[in-house]
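Why do we bother with a discrete structure alphabet at all? Because it lets us treat a fold like text: something you can write down, compare, and reason about line by line. To make this less abstract, here is a complete entry for Tectonin beta-propeller repeat-containing protein 1. Read it the way you would read a sentence in a foreign language you are learning: slowly, and without expecting to understand everything at once.
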Amino acid sequence: MPSSLLWAVDVYGRVYSLSTAGQQWEHCRDAHLEFKRVTAVQQCCWSIACDHNIYLNVHASDVPIRYQEETYENQRWNPVDGFSDRLLPSDRWQWSDVTGLKHQPLGDFQLPSDNWEWEADWYVDENFGGETTEKGGWTYAIDFPATYTKDKKWNSCVRRRRWIRYRRYKAQETWVKIPSEQTESLPDPFNDITCGGWEITEEPRGCLALWAVSLQGKVWFRCGINHHNPEGSYWEEVSVPGEVVQISSGPGDLVWAVLWEGHLLVREGISRDCLRGSSWVTVESPSPGAGAVHVAVGVNVVWAVTKDHKVWFRRGVNSHNPCGSGWIGMVGEMVMINVGLNDQVWGIGFEDRAVYFRQGVTVSELSGKAWKVVSVPRDSDRSHSSASASSLQSAGCFFGGEVRLESQASVLSDVDPDTERAVGGLVPTPEMGDSPKPRIPKVTSDSFISELVSDREGQISRRDVPSAGPSIPEEDHAEKEVEDRASPAQVLSPSQSGGLNPQWSNVDLEEAQTHLTSGPGVDAAETCSLSSVATYNLALEEPYGPDEHPKWAWVSGGGCFVDCHLQLNWFNSSTSTALNSSMQAMSLSITPAQTAAWRKQIFEQLSERSKREMENFMHYEQAIEQSVWVKKGNMQWWRDWKPHKWVDVQFALEQFSGAEGNKDGILFIYYTFNDEKKYLHVFINEVTILVPVLNDSKHTFAIYTAERTKQRWPIRLAAATELEMHDWLALLSVSCCDSRGIQGPPSKQAIWSVTCKGDIFVSEPTKELEASPYPTPCDQMFWRQVGGHMRMIESNSLGVVWGIGYDHTAWVHTGGYGGGFFQGLASSTDNIYTQTDVKSVYIYENQRWNPVTGYTNRGLPTDRYMWSDASGLKECTKNNTKPPSPNWTWVSDWTIDYAVSGGTDREGWQYAADFPASYHGYKTMKDFVRRRRWARKCKLTTTGPWQEVPPIALSDITILPCGPKSTVEQVPLWAISNKGDVLCRLGVTSLTPGGSSWLHVGTDQPFKSISIGGVHQVWAIAKDGSAFYRGSVSAQNPAGDCWYHIPSPTGQKLKQVSVGRTSVYTVDENGNLWYRHGVTPSYPQGSSWEHISNNVRKVSVGPLDQVWIIADKVQGSHSLSCGTVCRRLGVLPMEPKGHSWDYGIGGGWDHITVRGNSMEAPRILMPSLTDNGSNQTATRSPLRTSNQPEMNGNPVGC
């Protein structure tokens, strides 16, 4: 799980961040001003400074923020000048947007603010619909507007070309002021801010809803915030039925606000088309006697704080009922509450001003169980721990009897001139402790800061403040206050000062006024500042002593992801925290490569010692020469013959071990047929794979053998419970591995594959697998399962293995094995980590048009189900659709999916003439049916030998396929983000397969597939189906220089590419497999495409140019099977295309990679009538082989 940040502001206006993987608050030293508020999301943090302006801090990323500016140059043909810029008066502008309605000359494009910079100058886009245009990038048409083509025709009277220029956002990891000149009417100074709405829509990418409250109680909405415009465009005022003091926005469509009189407002009408909503609904305060002063919302929760500091939870809140149903009083007293990701809750305690975390918040118990203080030090506290006692005592010299008041910010005050008092010197005396303390009224949403001066004891100067316990259980809470007033002498005690020059901003006005007023007649209520930005300089460097807890004013967890099932490091004691920090400091010089080398050295030493000590006992006779054990159980078997049905059977596994330690076994299935007892048996060493099968009603798995693979008819068994099924699968997997002598983690040469439901399988290749002309049939390969859940996996022969989940999270293999339901001997004890994956389940709502009622859910008798799957053959409603398996749980409600191929209208509908047909996102006169897709997310939590590689979500990866006996220092690894950005991973080695950082490679359009060959040739496929080749990629220049556009096969759009040593294969969107001719070292782009096969889903080309595919519609003994593992036969250096296919295990496979199998086949001499023929056969292939090839080899260069 990648680390995320919790943001907070202390009472002095300093901003801190706390990582979920850290144990101390990190001071944001880039913030030069004091801050009042922060509101954070995962990609950025917004804030209000003491000057009431909005500031933005965009977190740094390996993928830069780039925006493509475009404009079109239009020309018309005339018989005198040919094509020129002399257009007709009715034509579009010479320089315009794509519609031609907006005038866009090149010189009119300006940077939005100083935080942007141009990457390069304008240039012409020569790519048109995945194909290259003629030089100049012109496309032709009969007239404006019309359908454009890249070829000039006799009737082409107009033409246009697109100009492109990129600008890059450069202000990352720094606080920048939001430009105010972007709005015509400047809003008045802001007092509160909240950011949310990132789950409302996925288009545009990174869309956010930023709400702000001004000092006059007005509400403002920042329009146009998205990934390509992080600063937004302009402010828009939102009318409210009163004066608002505070507002909160959740990740979805929940927005609540607090009115001045204590009531609450709920925003309604928020949708993807209207992020600012349409109307307000009033909700009464939780407490009749005390109005609300603060509110915080999440996805399905609303928390509130009233004027008496009581905490309240709103029940019944969801997207359909944003107002909820009622309030529940919670234990604890807070000054503010904040809700973060996963509806986790943080708060600022009223008594101690500490940050509290709400424990026990889960989907089933949103209110949580208890408050627990976040007890971690600040980074500035490190210097205090080494300070001597003498230095602390010497701090008393700074309190000579004069305290100066120093204004360091613009003050918006409601103090009348005639009520102001002169501030003079004052020597604190013990007698002043008896004077009553004035009470400062709560006049703004900053009132809780003012409470620092009225209800706290001792405050900053007290070193004996009682520390908060680890938790506040609700049943032990006592509702009473204990006031222990501190005298001014105690407040300014030299022994309790922590350093030099503290700055008191927005806080502690009570003590300050106690020492700064010239007489007891001063009315504190009249001298209170509305914004409370007066700064008091006490000539101290640090406001806190080494043993004092920091006092917090605001906390924001909108970008902090906390897994409710994992323990955070925040709740350790300060002693252990300091110890851990010192240990971390000591281990900073130890690199992962050194750690891996030490582990390898220790393992070798232990192996040598074990071998040396066991030699003395080799002559002893074994105590047990042979053993047999049997495990039995009751299961159900899917009968092989018709009528097919589930039959109750007895299942038995008999395993025996020989004198030499070899193990084998037999499976028995005892059943009854026609009152006669019969049995079916399978030898364990004949089993090729054990596959869990998805079934709504039964826990089933399939057992394949080589013969049953050819028949496409496995043995299907069903267990009574899921636990029993997993026990049998683990036991059978161990038995199969023992019978074949396979132990430990997968080898570096292993072949990895993924099923259509995300299960991971691995097979150990043999030298005869690619032998020619008699290779081992791939239906005899043994596949074993590895824990985890992936959408795709890529590997190479150096042991670098990466995977991508369905939620686009990147994972790297740790070198372990097992995980998931594998326990004990079937799994390694280390290198196993928790893995989560999220995927969407889709159903379709179908409607037909009739002239009376329009589109309704009443279809024709021959129509598909009105709620169905994509094919329309299976009925799928919202109620009867379940997650893929019992291991998955729903994590969202059903929502309309707008990201559908072909586009949708504003309500998500797609239209067509009939079912099924080609759908489009707009209605025409001939459209009589329509459909829209609904999506619901589900989550899986499992374990496996995988570690997450944060923070960029990926859609494709490729690793350099190294040949036999080769190694490289830095393994080239390329990837494509889920948004289409091309990335190059740096620091990837066999010892550190996760690498260190990403290097962004610029492109003119988003990509979807990428592959690197054995000699650093990089090919990629863009989202429009066009192919590209990256030039000048080498070990010294890992990112290359530029992209070369490669024409696609005629009339086809490519979707996937795989590059081997010299071969380049691609798959188009229609399932055709293509081979690239003419690829040579001098001309790596090749010359032409040749069609090889159809019905291909994925292709993988190995380091020896082996070709493996996932094929659909493969003929079996019973029916056509989809997702079959197939291998190309006859692939030789002189015949890289091969000649036929060998079919492996069929049904349910989605991905395969052979890019780690660099094991060369042994040379086989063909029988011949003459010796000359045999010699010619032996010398025909230029590929060098060895009778005993090494799996990992020696370093000779890749």
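What the structure line is telling us, in plain words: The two ends are 34 Å apart (CA to CA). The chain has a mean pLDDT of 79.
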